[in-house]
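Key result, reporting period 2: structure in, sequence out.
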């Protein structure tokens, strides 16, 4: 259903590229639950925005139901997002005494 192949996201400043995601590959099957965890600044939100078609990867391929999302226009990605995707965010707060 969702297949990411060597996804990279970077921001360029002059001749320097600052990578947020590098060589991320994963497969998510229909009905599968996925948890993305990591420290602050690890790229979790960036990855979710790419999966949710709210942002685009700098490099790599994103296949959604065998459609290469990287080849779609912004309008087409927006339609895919509206028709097929939703997010459930769960925040866990651990209080320490």
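The corresponding designed sequence is given below.
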């Amino acid at each position: 259903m969702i297949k990411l192949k060597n996804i990279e996201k970077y921001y360029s400043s002059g001749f320097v590229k600052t990578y947020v995601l590098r060589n991320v590959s994963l497969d998510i099957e229909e009905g599968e639950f996925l948890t993305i965890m990591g420290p602050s600044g690890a790229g979790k939100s960036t990855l979710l925005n790419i999966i949710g078609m709210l942002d685009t990867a700098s490099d790599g391929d994103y296949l959604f139901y065998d459609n290469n999302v990287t080849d779609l226009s912004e309008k087409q990605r927006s339609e895919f997002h509206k028709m097929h995707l939703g997010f459930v965010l769960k925040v866990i707060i651990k209080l320490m005494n």
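The mean pLDDT is 87. The helical segments are 44-51, 74-84. This case is discussed further under Risks and Mitigation.
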